[in-house]
Amino acid sequence: MIEIKPVAYVRNTRTAVEDDHWGAVQSEITLADHLQESSLAGIEEFSHIEVLFYFDQVEDEKIQYEARHPRNNPAYPKVGIFAQRGKNRPNKLGITVAKLVGRNGRSLTVTGLDAIDGTPVIDIKPVMKEFLPRSEVKQPAWSVDLMSAYWE
Amino acid sequence: MIEIKPVAYVRNTRTAVEDDHWGAVQSEITLADHLQESSLAGIEEFSHIEVLFYFDQVEDEKIQYEARHPRNNPAYPKVGIFAQRGKNRPNKLGITVAKLVGRNGRSLTVTGLDAIDGTPVIDIKPVMKEFLPRSEVKQPAWSVDLMSAYWE
């Protein structure tokens, strides 16, 4: 087993888990007490950050090990948990690229983070173009349909 | 503390940690025994996957809490660990988008994964365009310089 300690926490106005409409949510990410403010030095030079977080509200019994229809929508094919980005996954980890709006000491302000209030953050990385896909991205039609209202 | 269990392991020919030249490395990612093959069902429909892994070779004493020059290069500014993607970071977590070359049962073949042989994988997610940056990516000049030979 690997032991992980939260490095920050999310604060925003979204207290309930919702599937869609995350685009307008603004969040504060504030460092945990054991980390120094200097661990964020220079992050303002990046337009986007990658936020790695823990879906702490997911119950162990909900974790999906069998292939299933994403969002239980029978119009979508049955796919494995590693072929979708749903939260009920082994290790309960989420990764999202958020827009960095600003920094105030130990806190970052971001938009486009799909994590609810109180979510533990376990890593923050700057987005570099060199770490984006380096060839054309292809994905199945169901995933485009599923995402259609996600950021609206 | 959060407990994490590896879901897969990396196999490739790179046994030593190196800073650069990861582009040509081909890796196999094979599911851990407690996971079913169906957890990968449908992943072949995606061209790229996001691989979340654990830098298990990093010693705790090496973890960086103060701002420092990336790669100890004095030509680069001192930045905090959350403003760089180096491995000596709290929680020792890496995230990389790799190209999915193929699947054989419980194993995925990928290129462009910057993890050495034996690295534990703690999550696999499909890359969807909707989760890529949705506005222009800006980053400091030092990070472009640092990445210049990374994938070559």
Describe what you observe in this structure:
- The structure is a homodimer of 152-residue chains.
- Chain A has one domain: Elongation Factor Tu (Ef-tu), domain 3 (Beta Barrel).
- Chain A has 152 residues and is mainly β.
- Chain A is built from one helix and seven strands.
- A six-stranded antiparallel barrel of chain A has the order 2-3-6-5-4-7.
- The model of chain A has no long low-confidence stretch (mean pLDDT 96).
- The interface between A and B is large, with 69 and 69 residues.
- Strand 1 (2-4) of chain A pairs antiparallel with strand 1 of chain B, so a sheet runs across the interface.
Describe this protein with a few key phrases.
homodimer; about 150 residues; mainly beta; Elongation Factor Tu (Ef-tu), domain 3; about 5% helix; globular
Q: How many domains would you count in the coordinates of chain A?
A: 1
For the biggest β-sheet of chain A, the strand order reads 2-3-6-5-4-7
Major β-sheet profile of chain A = 6 strands, antiparallel, barrel
What is the helical fraction of chain A, as a range of percent? Answer: under 10%
Strand content of chain A: 25-35%
Q: What would you call the shape of chain A?
A: globular
Name the structural class of chain A.
mainly beta
Order of helices and strands of chain A: EEEEEEEH
Query: CATH homologous superfamily name of chain A?
Result: YaeB-like
Architecture per CATH nomenclature, i.e. the level-2 architecture of chain A: Beta Barrel
Mean pLDDT of chain A: 96
Structural Rg of chain A: 16 Å
